[in-house]
Amino acid sequence: MAGGILGTGVSGLAAAQYGLDTTGHNIANVNTEGYSRQRVETIATVGNAFRSTFLGNGTQLSAIQRTFNEYNFKEVMFNSSQFQYNDTNYANASRLDNLLADPDTGITVTFEEMFDGINGIVEEPTIISARNVLISRSETVAKRFNTLYEEMAVQHMGAINEEMTTTVEEINAMTQEIAFLNTKIQVENATGAQGFPPNDLLDKRELLLKRLSEKVQVTTFDLDDGTVNVTIGSGLTMVTGGVAVPMSVVRNEFDATQLDIAISASPGAQQKSVITNQLTGGSLTGLVDARDNVLRPAIQELGKLAMGIADNFNRQQTLGRDLNGDAGQYIFKDINDPQLVLSRTLNSSNNTNGSNFEVYIRNTSQLTGENYDMEYDGTNLDIFDEDGVLVQQFTPADIATMSAGTALTVGETGIALAISLDQMTAGDEFQIRPTYSAANDIKRIIEEPELIAAADNPLQITENANVNNVEFQLYEITGSSAAVPGPLPDDNITIQIDATGTTYEILDSAGVSISGPNAIPSDQLIEDPVAGFRFVLDGALAGGESFTITHADNPGINEDKKFGPGDNTNIVTMLGFQSARTLDNGTNSFSESYADLVTTIGVETKSREISRSSFATLLSGSEERLAGIQGVNLDEEAANLIQYQQAYSAAARIITVARETFQTLISSAG
Q1: Is 31 exposed, middle or buried, given 0-12, 13-18 or 19+ CB atoms closer than 10 A?
Q2: Spatial CB neighbours of 267, under 8 Å, sequence gap ≥ 6
Q3: Same domain for 43 and 90
Q4: Which positions of the chain have pLDDT values less than 70?
């Protein structure tokens, strides 16, 4: 009997001691991040058979379990991933929004100041100081575009690259640690007793999984041996058992200044797969999304605006006369400068050879600010927009034409394409970026104030057989191999439309053909390199029309077209650019286009702020629910201390009673 009561007391004492140890462990880790409260579970020891019944035999420890809920934990992981994604996205969008919307850093004020300078020449066309103001303010506009490009495409893009690199390093460190903990947990589960999992190791691993989900959204799969597999995207493995597959940053196949995310098929494998577009959730995806869907489109839209300003002012300059009576020259750098046309196409790093393309800006009003993907299948050259829609297919005959130096239009994109070096092989891919660097490329090149072409152009246009009242507009004087009509008696040029209205021919004053017949493109914007000018035919051609251009300084021509230094006709047209809708297919002025950009970024920023706030609330709620399950409650633990202390004292008293009973028995025997 004494042995029975002594064993029972000892078992009770041990159970109370386990309870005190576990409670103390809970209290000690009350502020430990990721710690799950542990509890002692005991069961009654099988009693000893005595006659027709069983006598109790004390208690024994059956398990030490942590209070952990898988569903609540995964809810926290998801909300944490989405919050960090939106938080990172919002931070980057907000940075861009502050830059573009701020009057001190945006472009709006410099626009207004430049048009104020133009107005000064309108009022005083012959005053040199007024012309100097416009030259200075044109420089300010160009430099503001350059500064914005530097901040967006270099500084901001560089910061994203750096943060992506750091984030990937952190992800790799965490997956390595998760794999290490998997191994230890597997060993402990294999060698430990049933019901006694390595709780603290499990807590460490769950904390790492939560932190990993803050960087990128992951999916976990629990295995029977206690390990957990981790995947991202569409099932790409990051951790399997005790092995972690490293993630890496690689240079984008088209643009080496931008980074992509890649992962190996297995640890140590040389072949890597780019998974940038497969990522979801987490700060890493937030960085990619901010770059690809906010920052990069903004750079391209800003470039479209810079290109539109340079093109419209340059063309209008050529249609006027400067203070010396000469044809106007460009104010800004030519948007089709030879170096620029070559820089707008990028070869894929996977191409067999490098081919060189020339991308000409044909019509800035049609530019969309989009990039285009170009693929060569060995026969045709296909061009797709950013949504994957086919924009243009060039046949072998077209490719031959482009390789010979003739630029062909690409749909209604506002660009034309020529090939300066054809080394294409089947499977080659290219990216066309018409406007990406335009905000950096714009430069003011006019120096002398006398060269501002304020006066009207010297050309008189007359028409014949124009039954449909087609409007003939000079688009730009390019001054190519054959000069436009000069101030010579009886000097003129005639554009003759054929009877079908599909081709044109240019004739000199003697009726001799100097260009053509040439096909009339669908948009009827014609650039004739022989004649030396570009013109637009606005309306439905019936066929047989003719348009004659004569220099206004010829005798007998309209006296209103004669040159005078006080003429402000052309500069008034330039002033009209302040409200003229010359961009986005005639729907936006310069100011409206920039306002659209600022509004778009503002809306994107607000949208991300709302999503960020929503997931902050969801995350807080899910963390509170999880903490209610696994968190340590000091009041509860204090009560447990008292309970286990009382149990310990009572068990000790049982042992004392057993000892006293044993002594009594010994004394009786003596």
Answers
A1: exposed
A2: 243, 244, 245, 246
A3: no
A4: 1-3, 49-54, 193, 195, 268, 479-491, 552-564, 670
Which of 407, 441, 475 terminates a domain? The answer is: 441
Are 370 and 464 in the same domain?
Answer: no
Whether residue 288 sits in one domain with residue 183: yes
Domain co-membership, 176 together with 196: yes
Bridge partners of 254? none
Are residues 593 and 583 in contact, defined by beta-carbon separation less than 8 angstroms?
yes
Domain boundary among 562, 595, 613: 562
- The reported pLDDT for the residue numbered 561 is 56
Helix (H/G/I), strand (E/B), else coil: 80:
helix
Instruction: With beta carbons less than 8 A apart as the criterion, state whether 121 and 114 touch.
Output: no
The two three-digit tokens of residue 377, written as one number:
């299948």
Q: How far apart, in whole angstroms, are the C-alpha atoms of residue 556 and residue 279?
A: 73
Q: In which domain, by residue range, is 523 found? A: 459-562
Between CA 16 and CA 18 the distance in angstroms is 5
Give the distance, in angstroms, between the CA of residue 284 and the centroid of all CA atoms in the same chain.
Answer: 12
Which of 72, 58, 66, 57 is closest to 25 using CA atoms? 66
Give a three-class secondary structure readout of 319-336.
CCECCCCCECCCCECCCC
Q: Is residue 255 part of a domain?
A: yes
Q: Is 658 left (phi over 0), alpha (psi -120 to 50) or beta?
A: alpha
Helix ranges, 150-277 (H): 157-191, 199-215
Sheet holding 408-409, edge to edge: 356-361, 415-421, 408-409
Q: Show the tokens assigned to 435.
A: 């406007």
254 and 105 in a single domain? The answer is yes
Q: What is the pLDDT of residue 272?
A: 86
pLDDT of residue 562: 57
Q: Which residues fall within 8 angstroms of residue 381, CB to CB, at 6 or more apart?
A: 374, 375, 393, 394, 398, 399, 424
Instruction: Give a yes or no: residue 574 inside a domain.
Output: no
Per-residue pLDDT at 556: 52
Residue 24, domain member (yes or no): yes
Give φ, ψ of 641 to 5 degrees.
-60, -45
Residue 57, helix vs strand vs coil: coil
CA distance 430 to 434: 13
Strands 408-409 and 415-421: antiparallel
- Tally of domains within the chain: 4
Count CB atoms within 10 A of the CB of residue 272.
Answer: 16
Q: Tell me 106's DSSP state.
A: S
What span, in angstroms and rounded, lies between the C-alpha atoms of 107 and 194? 70
The token pair that represents 636 in the structure block:
């509860």
Residue 549 has a pLDDT of 86
Do 318 and 267 fall into the same domain?
A: no
Q: Please tell me whether residues 385 and 534 are part of one structural domain.
A: no
User: Residue 235 — left, alpha, or beta (φ > 0 → left; ψ -120 to 50 → alpha)?
Assistant: left
- The single-letter code of the amino acid at 375 is E
pTM of the model: 0.88
Domain assignment present for residue 116? The answer is no
At 642, is the secondary structure helix, strand, or coil?
helix
Does 242 share its domain with 309?
no
- E strands present in 448-589: 459-464, 471-477, 492-497, 503-507, 513-519, 525-528, 533-538, 546-551
The 10 Å CB-count burial string (b at 16+, else e) for 448-480 is ebebbbbbbbbbbeeeeebeeebebebbbbbee
